[in-house]
Design brief:
homodimer, mainly beta, six-stranded antiparallel sheet, 40 strands, about 15% helix, elongated, disordered N terminus
């Protein structure tokens, strides 16, 4: 009686955090026979000969047939069928048989990591359901329905025959392991999305388009999501294991997407991708060079969780998209043009100019990104009022920590639109990305700064995503914002202020009566070109403007790298009139300093002679890179060899060195890579690959060419395999 | 013009995270004289001879005079005065002088870590204010008001004289450093609390009472918060530095208390205290042995951030209380009796019993703590709707991770009461501590479990805190809960369910018509005693009950250590009648197995013979330890020696070994410790200390005696120094 078991006074509270760690239950568990009421000897107990998971049939019914994985994959709250064969006919009255499904190292019925389903007995207590569908002699077919909120991941299957003396369990057999995924087809699942076209796009489409460039010059690249490729599902579960996500949380979509957003970046938790904006990618792959997610996820899993180098926002968004679609959560990639990165969450993006109107890099810490990519996932938010269900922002680009870790979301898009910023998670940060005011401050040498110009409309001008079942973009700005200046927009700003967002407390600017804007056509990299500065005088007096035009090379994050042009021009503008100033830009001036994605930032700082007032404008020009061409010869047919030709010509007067060419063809072959030491000025390269399509349908060939001097050269070709 | 500065394309986004890292500005900064318009030679520039911070006068006005710290300490949004002496008379028209206040390694005006206040010129842009109060010859007195939401911490002071050629700055002088704290006296501060008695208790009181024991036997211990003791304020800032809390967040009370709750425990971040419930404290100090926070905070800082061993909930709460009061945030320690620790947040505390009605320790992971201590802080929540301002729960005992880290809160007490669980932070977890149902499940050897009994009223029965200006407890249960079963209580449960708390979906229990409860008087440790089991039969038939009484030694966390008693008794109870069963408990049975805090847990499992129904009840008995006595001889007077005598007698029949005696007297002396190798049975020890009070007023002497066989022996004596 006095058994003294030594234990911790705090009790056992550790949770299994790995799907790949296994508990191995014994094949025989004897009962304490002293406690058993003696009975007449029972008849010979059953033996289990085989368990058939009916992988192909079940997968077709569960929309999981596209996964290149030999095991069964099912979705929550949808029945699947297993046939057990015994050594003798099964008798429902006599035989006590249980199915057991286990996940992780400490299976526990209370935690949903150990499922016990007696065959032929209705189970009242658990949440998975089972029923006998058919008994034919030695064969029993059972229908099993995982509950709508069960843990997702890889489960082990055992069959147990219970006798008076103990439990006889089948041996561990990995062929009977099966995966359970989220179910966007089922109304009871947290990630249910009603429209089938949306499910086909946001869950089943394994190729997508990511928009980039800048707001006046929207460009795009195709991306291989590859969620059905061989090994990708296991890689995604490995990501969760590597991030020590407790199994008990893995059925909760809110928790899962939040953890997912943290786990795509290497910060804090050795997640999938290392971010770099440093232009030196020699120890890894340049962010611009990737063509899709498959290569990244498989490399991360193959190397046991070593973060992959390197990513920028669209790479994070692309891989997070793959991860979510793979687990069955409807997801899409969003591009926000003119996205503020507000370091202090005060809804003010401070641009500090020096006395000459140039950006003071040492004092400017906030920035406006030309574009920023994040993701949206579609789900119910049972933790929030109903109106905040639907699309949720998640973002794994490591911009700022959220409550201590680099992650962002899920943030209800509806809550952002209404300025309802109290609810979790990270609504304030997302709101600032879309609604910050740009404040130009000017500082003198005494260290005094003053507000020189405020632009309330520059940030969050346009949000886009790939259209369902089409290769063009859909403008989804109105999901996030009411029209600038409308009553509802004002209400949103008021709501935000009531939730602790600082008020717009800077003084209103005196009206100068003169405005400027910069006009420019599309420019090819390496071309000389002209800018037009339009100066509009709305006053009734003549105005003379002394304009300082600064031309800089900049990153897509708005961070300025090199100033290559500084020019002063003056114009006299008649009342109610517009003057045009031409500014010539020479390739020899900017080419030596270009950084990736080839953005030029022009800032004009104007001083009105008559009044002493100052005005500003800025404009980003994204230069068009030379073209990569992809062709196939012949008509693509299943089982027939097809030749793919990728070619490129160096149009520049300098040598391109250490050039990497990538060809990715989702569902046709793994990613191929080819390196060239040099491509001389005017020189061409041509790369040929022979592939044999295995399945019919639409396929996308994605190519990229990348070297230090030239990044972001990509193209794609869609083919229909017959 | 073509200056190519190499930089990261993501910009500079690192924040200073340490108050002790310093930026050393140059003593002279030359201007680029080419850019300066030549002027006639200026008159001889001023030199600064001295900066007087008026520490004593300012501290009296700012309620900070009690801090044993020679530097100035001020509170936000309240003016303080500095006098600058120059080598010649100051001329407001001619002289350009600035005060600079810096904090951390990268001072920045936009981030509030660099404050520039020109003397005599009104500053429009910044948020700190200054004004010239008095000019007398070479002496200028300036009034400075930190803004109501500024960063708290230690600032450096410089005075800068600006000439045409540059800036002349005073040398670094630590004597002019000053601390800024939260200001509960000021309505504009986030932590304003209107009632002065509350400020005196929750901010200024440096000794408190923490309640423990169990709900039927409430006991208490005094605690030295010691927030004004020498070195404690620096230790608290060191805790923030050690936890890498960005300086820019340190003015935001919501952020600060959340970070504080994370930093008191060593998990994740090498915070202040290592938790242990393992009964083996030989490498540190037993949680029960501490008498206050001073010793712990100073040790942590002195050893450079090595976590201190060991803590349990009241130690975490005591130290967190000191930390908050020290920084100026109103705080109190709360004790929640019958506090559920629900591992999965499903609002069900599962107690799994085996076939004999004994707790199955291997399958019971949730537990009900006899009591659990946390803290409340008082503050506005600008991030939430107004009604959720006021008292907020924070808890640094590492029970469960909150969004990835061990921390809890701030959780609005009002939101918990209303079941409004969507708002940050951790409302769900706190709600479960107060509102879980205890579900007794019974499992048979086949692994089938069934619900045997549900108790919806066991958890969260009573919450208490020390009363303002009194040494008794205040029942604050109604702050957290509406009366059990009331309409408002039902509405709260409904609100919680609408926010994703699982419904109470178990089947209603059939009414047995028989109830049991256990009655017992106060019991001294080492005594034999009697329990009375009252069995009440509400039916109209006679009932025979077979009762199994299990007696176990248990921790205050509800975790069972050793079962020392198992007894079967039967009783026949007439209709509408009550029977009493006596159960004798012998000291020899339980004494060898006692664990700290000496709790005995009795579980009675009853089977009604006539109906086969089962009923349960449980009761914790906390044994009263032997007494520690504290006496002083003579009348305590300032400057006069006073003798303190602490004495103890071992009433047991066994030897007490490695006994530690602690004496703490807040404001009188540092904590003193004395060790005894052995105290034989019946033996006494007496420890004498001579102290000389330096200040008059109420002082509390706190003593504790601790050894492996006997923990939680504490006492206190209040004296008035004249």
């Amino acid at each position: 009686m006095n058994k003294h078991i030594k234990s911790s006074g705090k009790g056992r509270v550790r949770f299994a955090k790995s799907n790949s760690d296994e508990h191995r239950p014994p094949t025989f568990e004897a009962f304490d026979t002293k406690l058993v009421t003696p009975r007449a000897p029972t008849t010979q107990a059953l033996s289990v000969l085989d368990v058939d998971m009916h992988a192909a049939e079940n997968k077709r019914a569960h929309n999981t047939i596209k996964y290149k994985n030999t095991n069964l994959i099912v979705r929550r709250n949808q029945e699947f069928f297993i046939t057990i064969s015994f050594d003798q006919p099964f008798n429902n009255q006599r035989d006590n048989v249980q199915m057991e499904f286990l996940i992780g190292s400490s299976p526990d019925e209370n935690k949903g990591t150990y499922i016990v389903l007696p065959i032929g007995i209705e189970k009242s207590n658990g949440r998975w359901k089972s029923r006998v569908v058919d008994i034919r002699g030695n064969y029993v077919t059972v229908g099993v329905t995982p509950d709508a909120s069960c843990i997702i991941g890889r489960f082990q299957t055992f069959v147990v025959v219970v006798s008076d003396f103990g439990k006889q369990r089948t041996e561990r057999n990995t062929a009977t392991d099966f995966y359970v995924l989220f179910n966007p087809w089922d109304p009871a699942d947290q990630v249910y999305i009603p429209n089938d076209n949306q499910r086909q796009e946001y869950v089943m489409n394994d190729v997508g388009i990511i928009y980039n460039g800048e707001i006046n010059n929207i460009t795009s690249r195709s991306w291989n999501f590859g969620q059905f490729e061989k090994g990708v599902l296991d890689a995604c579960l490995f990501v969760l294991d590597s991030g020590k996500v407790p199994l008990v949380y893995r059925g909760n979509a809110t928790q899962l997407v939040r953890q997912g957003s943290a786990l795509m970046n290497a910060q804090d938790d050795d997640g999938v991708l290392v971010g770099s904006w440093d232009e030196n990618y020699s120890i890894g792959t340049a962010p611009t060079a990737w063509t899709g997610s498959t290569e990244i996820l498989l490399k991360y899993a193959r190397e046991g969780g070593v973060p992959v180098c390197f990513a920028q926002c669209w790479v994070y968004a692309g891989v997070l998209n793959s991860f979510m679609r793979c687990l069955g959560i409807p997801t899409r990639v969003i591009t926000n043009y003119c996205s503020a990165h507000d370091n202090t969450g005060n809804l003010k993006t401070d641009i500090v100019l020096d006395e000459d109107g140039r950006v003071d890099r040492s004092r400017t810490r906030d920035s406006v990104w030309n574009y920023h990519c994040w993701n949206e996932v579609y789900m119910k938010r049972p933790d929030l009022p109903d109106k905040f269900s639907g699309w949720q922002v998640i973002d794994s680009t490591p911009q700022e920590t959220s409550d201590g870790l680099y992650r962002c979301g899920p943030t209800s898009v509806n809550a952002v639109k209404e300025g309802e910023l109290s609810y979790p998670f990270d609504a304030r940060f997302v709101f600032a990305e879309l609604n910050s005011d740009v404040i130009y401050r000017q500082s003198d040498k005494y260290g005094n700064t003053k507000i020189h110009h405020v632009d309330t409309a520059y940030v969050g001008k346009l949000l886009v995503t790939k259209r369902v079942n089409a290769n063009s973009y859909e403008d989804i700005t109105s999901n996030y914002k009411y029209p600038e200046g409308s009553d509802k927009d004002k209400q949103t700003m008021k709501n935000a202020e009531n939730r602790g967002i600082p008020t717009r407390d800077y003084l209103p600017q005196p009206e100068a009566g003169v405005t400027m804007n910069i006009q420019v056509d599309t420019v090819k990299m390496g071309d000389n070109f002209k800018l037009t500065l339009n100066i509009n005088n709305q006053t009734s007096q003549t105005r003379t403007i002394n304009a300082t035009i600064t031309g800089s090379v900049s990153f897509y994050t708005g961070v300025v790298s090199t100033t290559f042009k500084l020019e002063n021009k003056a114009a006299t503008v008649n009342p109610q009139n517009t003057a045009k100033l031409q500014i010539n830009v020479q390739a020899v001036d900017y080419m030596p300093y270009l950084v990736e994605q080839a953005n030029l930032l022009f800032v004009v700082y104007g001083r009105i002679q008559e009044t002493g007032q100052t005005i500003s404008t800025m404009r980003v020009v994204t230069l068009r890179p030379p073209e990569l061409t992809i062709n196939v010869n012949g008509i693509p047919r299943v089982g027939k060899e097809l030749m793919v030709i990728v070619s490129f010509r160096n149009p520049f007067t300098f040598i391109l060195e250490n050039v990497q060419l990538r060809l990715d063809a989702v569902g046709l072959m793994p990613t191929r890579m080819k390196s060239y030491n040099q491509i001389p000025p005017g020189g061409s390269v041509q790369y040929t690959e022979v592939i044999t399509p295995q399945t019919p349908g639409r396929k996308v060939l994605i190519g990229s060419l990348d070297c230090a001097a030239l990044r972001q050269v990509t193209n794609q070709l869609e083919i229909i395999v017959q």
